[in-house]
């Protein structure tokens, strides 16, 4: 008998069509899986109800593996075959690895990513991560009673393409359909429902067991943009345990300890740390193997004092990240706390003091990333309409760009950019007094508009009349989480704006995308030549335009002879432009430029004489280095 | 004619409703689909429809459209755990046979 969940009004699914989705926090130390059931996001525990899965995989000689607590328990016994913190190896080569002397593993250098020699053979970090993901997948399937539609997996905001790709490969290997990779700080913000909030800047302070990350996010139209990240990969809750441990040694006047005694005291230290989160005083009692007895009282005041430097150490990256983002503390609207170590009152206090506001901390900081991932997965599954047109993107399959003069494509967002993303570029007008700009949005890798796919056209009107090139039109391409492209054009001086929303990937099948990519590779050289020709033609047309308008205005400065020569040059250039010989066009340009040099100088004199400050004489001559121009209306 | 919730089910519904932050109760229904003819629907209700039939069980308001009621009459909605899985189950005396999964049924 199936067990049913409550759906939102009108959202009931047909039998066997439940869109079961999960969110996975694939952590360095621990991993979690969560889902949204009857509208409530919850962590899925194991058979014993334990929410965490230690990110530990142990390989056995028979080829099998153990994952989680089972593997963690053998870590000391079988360190070489027990892989911990595999996340640090994802997408990394051997040369990328710091401190590898301290690790118990036998590494093998392979192109792209290192490998590990284990009892079960050579394993890549992708395979190790896949073991963790597979365990979580099985747990989720048992908990949800069916096969999964997909998962959202979180990755650190600073993960590069190689690390993200490795994570994707691990998901595929684990038989887990990946809906999307989600940045960890973004997931935390989503868990707090900040994606529904108004626009604003948020800080995510993530102090885990062994790492510290700070991320500054900007929320804009439901999309989180990572403005800056920072952190310390060797600073975490474990260091606080160690401070207490050192304090115990000193306060109790202990001699150097045996390994067992040290381990036990470290455990006592961690217990005291956790106790002090909710109490003012913690007792530390232990009887050592050496026969010594430890009886100490640790107060929150002492704890705060001995860990002051650690807390202060986290604030340095915070300040730097804010500076990198170009923001002040006052501009941060909210601070999200992530990671078990943020439970410590002195950490809460320090963060609160720095940001001059109480941090958001009413969710379990260990679970907040997985919860956010589950909510995102649910949103993606719920938003997706039934049918095949439901396409999820995590990168842009083809570049998105604008048509510029001469039918050329200016790429604004390059292929394979992870989404959501936003890019902007400035364009200007082509003619004096131009008041409108036509924007043609295209998709593809080729250099010419005619070889790309047209997505949309729209116009920006109401540009105040200005000299050609004086208008500053900022065109912003924004692709949101669902692959929706929004293009906005705004003229800076007047503020006039126009925008359009398009779905870039809809209607393009995988085969088409593959075909387009192949096409672009085949035609690289062709395209480059075509582009050069077009650019020269555009330059020529601009020159003709400029000289003609100068002649109309100041034609009286020329003798009949000079005028005839210039007219002849213009005619010759116009004829050359109509052909496809780039060299001929260039020669004609040179000729016209040479013959108009005197004219330009005379115009300059005239304008100075008449204090004609508003007229621009750079209309004449070369302006190849100027900002690119948009297509004129 | 009546449809009830077990105490367990009512407690879970109440909890979900609080966390959801809105809604007046639970809407139960059947629709024709699935491998054995009919399928259950269980949704949050944000408002009642004019012809809804209302029941109250352990403090939870249950709304059922009149067309669905004959198929659900006498049903107790329960909340159950099966291994790691948990969720709502219809104990429906009208069911003659159900598909293996129990998600769709016949009367």
TrEMBL record, chain A:
**Coiled-coil region list:** none
Q: What GO biological process, any one, is recorded here?
A: iron-sulfur cluster assembly
Keywords, ordered alphabetically: ATP-binding, Chaperone, Nucleotide-binding
Looking up PROSITE patterns in the UniProt record yields: HSP70_1, HSP70_2, HSP70_3
Q: Which Gene3D superfamilies has this protein been placed in?
A: 1.20.1270.10, 3.30.420.40, Actin, Chain A, domain 4, Substrate Binding Domain Of DNAk, Chain A, domain 1
Q: Name one GO molecular function term.
A: ATP-dependent protein folding chaperone
UniProt xrefs under InterPro entries: ATPase_NBD (IPR043129), Heat_shock_70_CS (IPR018181), HSP70_C_sf (IPR029048), HSP70_peptide-bd_sf (IPR029047), Hsp_70_fam (IPR013126), ISC_FeS_clus_asmbl_HscA (IPR010236)
Nucleotide-binding as a keyword of this entry, yes or no, is yes
User: What role does this protein play?
Assistant: Chaperone involved in the maturation of iron-sulfur cluster-containing proteins. Has a low intrinsic ATPase activity which is markedly stimulated by HscB.
According to its UniProt record, which protein family does this protein belong to?
Answer: Belongs to the heat shock protein 70 family.
Xref: PANTHER family: HEAT SHOCK PROTEIN 70KDA
State what protein this is by name: Chaperone protein HscA homolog
Taxonomic lineage from the root: Bacteria, Pseudomonadati, Pseudomonadota, Betaproteobacteria, Candidatus Accumulibacter
Q: Tell me the gene name.
A: hscA
From TrEMBL, chain B:
Query: Single GO cellular component annotation?
Result: cytosol
Instruction: Tell me a GO biological process for this protein.
Output: iron-sulfur cluster assembly
Known cofactor(s): Fe cation
Gene3D superfamilies, sorted: HesB-like domain
Domain Core, first and last residues per copy: 1-103
What InterPro entries does this protein map onto?
ATAP, ATAP_core_dom, Fe-S_cluster_asmbl/transfer, FeS_cluster_insertion_CS, HesB-like_dom_sf, IscA_proteobact
Recall the GO molecular function terms of this protein's record: 2 iron, 2 sulfur cluster binding; metal ion binding
Keyword terms, alphabetized: Iron, Metal-binding
- Domain of life, source organism: Bacteria
Query: Family, per the entry?
Result: Belongs to the HesB/IscA family.
Q: Which NCBIfam families match?
A: iron-sulfur cluster assembly accessory protein (TIGR00049), IscA (TIGR02011)
Listed PANTHER family = IRON-SULFUR CLUSTER ASSEMBLY 1 HOMOLOG, MITOCHONDRIAL, IRON-SULFUR CLUSTER ASSEMBLY PROTEIN
Listed name of the protein? Iron-binding protein IscA
Species, as recorded: Candidatus Accumulibacter vicinus
Q: What is the lineage of its organism?
A: Bacteria, Pseudomonadati, Pseudomonadota, Betaproteobacteria, Candidatus Accumulibacter
Q: What's the encoding gene here? A: iscA
């Amino acid at each position: 008998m199936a067990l049913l969940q409550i759906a939102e009004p009108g959202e009931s699914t047909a039998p066997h069509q439940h869109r079961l989705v999960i969110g996975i926090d694939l952590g360095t130390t621990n991993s979690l899986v969560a889902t949204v059931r009857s509208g409530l996001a919850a962590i899925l525990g194991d058979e014993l109800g334990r929410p965490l899965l230690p990110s530990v995989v142990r390989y056995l000689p028979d080829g099998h593996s153990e994952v989680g607590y089972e593997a963690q328990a053998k870590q000391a016994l079988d360190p070489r075959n027990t892989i911990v913190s595999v996340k640090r190896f994802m997408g990394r080569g051997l040369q990328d690895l710091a401190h590898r002397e301290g690790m118990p593993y036998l590494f093998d250098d392979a192109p792209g990513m290192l490998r590990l020699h284990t009892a079960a053979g050579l394993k890549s970090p992708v395979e190790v991560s896949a073991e963790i993901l597979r365990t979580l997948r099985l747990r989720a399937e048992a908990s949800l009673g069916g096969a999964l539609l997909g998962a959202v997996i979180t990755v650190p905001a600073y993960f590069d393409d190689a690390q993200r790709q490795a994570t994707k490969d691990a998901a595929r290997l684990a038989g887990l359909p990946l809906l999307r990779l989600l940045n960890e700080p973004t997931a935390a913000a989503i868990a707090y429902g900040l994606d529904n909030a108004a626009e604003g800047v948020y800080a995510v302070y993530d102090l885990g067991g062994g790492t510290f990350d700070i991320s500054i996010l900007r929320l804009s139209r439901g999309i989180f943009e990572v403005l800056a990240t920072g952190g310390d990969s060797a600073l975490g809750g474990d260091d606080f345990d160690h401070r207490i441990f050192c304090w115990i040694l000193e306060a109790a006047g202990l001699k150097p300890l045996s390994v067992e005694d040290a381990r036990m005291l470290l455990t006592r230290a961690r217990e005291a740390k956790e106790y002090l989160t909710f109490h003012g005083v913690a007792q530390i009692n232990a009887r050592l193997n050496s026969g010594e007895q430890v009886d100490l009282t640790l107060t929150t005041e002492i704890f705060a004092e001995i860990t002051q430097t650690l807390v202060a150490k986290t604030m340095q990256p915070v300040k730097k990240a804010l500076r990198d983002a170009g923001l002040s503390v006052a501009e941060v609207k909210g601070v999200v706390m992530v990671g078990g170590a943020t439970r410590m009152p002195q950490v809460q206090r320090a963060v609160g003091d720095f940001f001059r506001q109480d941090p958001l901390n009413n969710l379990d900081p260990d679970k907040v990333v997985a919860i956010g991932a589950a909510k995102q997965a649910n949103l993606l599954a719920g938003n997706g309409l039934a049918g095949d047109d439901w396409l999820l993107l995590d990168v842009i399959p083809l570049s998105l760009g604008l048509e510029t003069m001469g039918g050329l494509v200016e790429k604004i967002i390059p292929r394979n950019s992870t989404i959501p993303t936003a890019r902007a570029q400035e364009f200007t007008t082509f003619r004096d007094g131009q008041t409108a700009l036509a924007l043609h949005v295209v998709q593809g890798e080729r250099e010419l508009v005619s070889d790309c796919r047209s997505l949309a056209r729209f116009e920006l009107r109401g540009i105040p009349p200005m000299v050609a090139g004086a208008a500053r039109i900022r065109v912003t391409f924004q692709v949101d989480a669902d692959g929706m492209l929004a293009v906005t054009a705004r003229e800076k001086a007047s503020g006039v704006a126009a925008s359009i929303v398009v779905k870039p990937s809809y209607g393009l099948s995988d085969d088409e995308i593959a075909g387009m990519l192949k096409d672009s590779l085949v035609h690289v050289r062709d395209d480059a030549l075509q582009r050069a020709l077009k650019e020269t033609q555009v330059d020529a047309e601009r020159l003709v335009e400029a000289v003609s308008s100068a002649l109309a205005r100041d034609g009286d400065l020329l003798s009949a002879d000079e005028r005839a020569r210039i007219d002849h040059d213009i005619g010759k250039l116009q004829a050359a432009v109509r052909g496809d010989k780039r060299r001929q066009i260039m020669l004609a340009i040179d000729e016209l430029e040479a013959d108009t040099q005197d004219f330009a100088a005379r115009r300059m004199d005239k304008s100075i004489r008449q204090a004609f400050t508003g007229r621009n004489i750079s209309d004449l001559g070369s302006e190849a280095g100027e900002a690119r121009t948009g297509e004129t209306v | 004619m009546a449809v009830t919730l077990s105490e367990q089910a009512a407690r879970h519904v109440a909890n979900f409703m609080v966390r959801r932050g809105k809604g007046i109760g639970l809407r139960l229904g059947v629709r024709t689909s699935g491998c054995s003819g009919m399928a259950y629907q269980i949704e949050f209700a944000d408002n009642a429809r004019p012809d809804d039939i209302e029941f109250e069980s352990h403090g939870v308001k249950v709304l059922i459209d009149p067309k669905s009621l004959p198929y659900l009459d006498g049903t107790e909605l329960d909340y159950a755990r099966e291994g790691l899985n948990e969720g709502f189950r219809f104990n429906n005396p009208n069911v003659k046979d159900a598909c293996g999964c129990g998600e769709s049924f016949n009367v």
